[in-house]
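Suppose a colleague, Dr. K., hands you the sequence of a protein chain of 340 amino acids and asks what its three-dimensional shape might be. Before reaching for any lab equipment, you can write down a predicted structure in token form. Begin with the sequence itself:
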Amino acid sequence: MAVPAVAAGIKGRPSSYLGRMLPPYTKPHLSFADQLALLVQRGLVVTDPARAILHLQRIGYGRLTPYWQPFQQLVPDPNDATRTIRTEQFRPGAEFRHAVDLYLFDKQLRLLFLDAIERIEVALRVDLAHALGKRDPFAHRSTAFLDARRANHAMPGGGTRHQSWLAKADGAIARSKDDWIKEFYATYSPPVPIWMAVEAWDFGTLSWLLEMAHPNDRAAIAKRYGLLPNTLVSWIKTLAFVRNISAHHARLWNAGIINQPLVPKPFEAPQLVHIGSDLHRRTRVYGAAVVASYFVGRINPGTSWPARMKGHWQAFPAMPFASPIQGGFLAGWDAEAIWA
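The predicted structure, expressed as tokens, is then:
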């Protein structure tokens, strides 16, 4: 009997790729000392083995892996001469401590972003609740009060964008353990009005609603920030993406940003127009950083956040093979007006 091209794996995942059977995972469990020995064997310099083992015990091999990848050697892809492949061998001069320094830098970077995004998220909740609530206490539940074209957009899995969003929004309220929700259901019948419901939604749910909001409401909210509606939606989606990375403690400092921020018109935010000069600024975290700086400055003009983010990148740990440029912080970035 022929072997099927795709065999079921864990939770239904295929154990083949494009019809090619893949081998099972056979790498053995390694002690912390053996993990370090393997890294040394691959050329990573370890100046303090005892301290390195402590880092492996507290942080973990898997979590540190993305932080030593910039130090690994690249070789030509045998299947595509225009591409390279990262190998397990390290470049001469790469050190274990540099990966830890990058990890610690990234940890603080995520905390800085979460500090800014919390303020932006709170402000956006107020913006949406106030704008939509004027139309109807339950405006978020009916496409009659939203942008019908966007809200009724068909989703690949069936249903509309609004239906998919509403299921997520209601699910967040159902899962919430906040006292106000218990008190509401003990006093009133559902649904919950928008000015209360927003408090149960995460940043991603808010960004979806902003995108589906009535064009006049979207424009009114954008005007508060001196932006065009499409620019506002784009920037909020950028920050929602960064928020997810930060909340899951994933690598951020040189990560690719899927939801890249639109380049603003000069009359919107002239201090951010420079992100259009090089795509690398927008495809890496720099674009998200200037967007966060802009919003926080509009919400709280006296904030020290831009100075703290600027100082953090200016103190990027010195090491070979890694630099702020890989995060989109190109030469002269700290002289831009947004960081003044």
